[in-house]
Amino acid sequence: MSDIVENLGRSLIQHGKESDRIYLMKLDPRDVSTIIARMEELAEANDYGKLFCKVPGPVARAFAHVGYREEARIPRFFDGLIDVAFMSRFRKSTRSQISDEHRAAIKQTLDVAEQKRASATVHPDANYHIRRLDEKDASQVAGLYRMVFPSYPFPIFDETYLLDTMATHIRYFGAFTTNRLVAAASAEMDREARNAEMTDFATDPGHRKRGLAVELLRAMESDIKAAGFATLYTIARAVSVGINATFARCGYQFGGTLINNTQISGSIESMNVWYRSLASSG
């Protein structure tokens, strides 16, 4: 079962034992004076290992004052004007620790991604067609995600979840060969703040290394930019060379690493933050 997404006060959080954390996804300004204490109560009641918060830069000081540390930052995240800080507090010391080998693997992934930034442009493969997905595609999308991911932090294996989010705030895109979906990704939109998370990338193993993630990302960028959004970002698996290289190649900047942050594909993994300002792009 995926972790729960619900309101705490007027703010939106995700929490549960899958990722063993509370994730403050969207802080309502009216909750600034109370949210830290309320999250502490919830974390204590459930013995969560990490509290992970996405907050406006000016608010970050209040979190730092009570023991949170800034793991990543994205400039001009809110309405193209105000930074976001990714603030974390580790309730268990083991949760904040990574081995020297894991730290080296993260560094190697970032090094390769930066090398790919300067590499030759990926050209579209004429054997694939990229388009925005709709309700009739939900079954194929869920099936692809079930095939690629043993587990995932959000219920993307559930057609009902896909349909609900398609109707509200997430645009899904897919790559097809004939009529078969072989790769997918999504743009989760915060219309009020004019930012979007580029996420949920998955490719059928038989169709990898053909540049489909890059093509999906470009298609989503074009769509989201036309809708007036200012900032794009992703939270990517820190030791996945392919997805980190995809974002570097497409002009994203590295914003920081979130240690032992997200349960995906059967274990809790560290994640890298990448971002791109559309206001400064052509």
Write a compact overview of the structure shown:
This protein has 282 residues and is an alpha+beta fold.
Protein architecture, described:
By secondary structure, the protein is of the alpha+beta class. Helices cover 29% and strands 37% of the residues. It has seven helices and 13 strands. Strands 7-8-9-10-11-13-12 form a seven-stranded mixed beta sheet, with helices on both faces. A six-stranded mixed beta sheet has the order 1-2-3-4-6-5. Strand 12 and strand 13 form a beta hairpin. Helix 3 packs parallel to helix 7 and helix 4 packs across helix 5.
Question: Which properties best describe this structure?
Answer:
alpha+beta; seven-stranded mixed beta sheet; six-stranded mixed beta sheet; 13 strands; 29% helix
Q: What fraction of residues sit in β-strands?
A: 35-45%
Number of helical segments with 4 or more residues: 7
Please give the alpha-carbon distance between the first and last residues.
42 Å
Morphology: globular
Contiguous uncertain segments of 5+ residues: none
State the total count of DSSP E strands: 13
Main sheet overview? 7 strands, mixed
* Computed Rg: 18 Å
Order of helices and strands: EEEHEHEEHEHHEEEHEHEE
Helix-strand layout with pairing:
Layout: E1 4-8, E2 11-16, E3 21-26, H1 35-46, E4 50-56, H2 60-65, E5 69-78, E6 82-90, H3 100-117, E7 129-132, H4 138-148, H5 159-168, E8 170-177, E9 180-190, E10 195-203, H6 212-226, E11 231-237, H7 241-249, E12 253-264, E13 267-277
Parallel strand pairs: 3-4, 10-11
Antiparallel strand pairs: 1-2, 2-3, 4-6, 5-6, 7-8, 8-9, 9-10, 11-13, 12-13
Helix pairs in contact: 3-7, 4-5
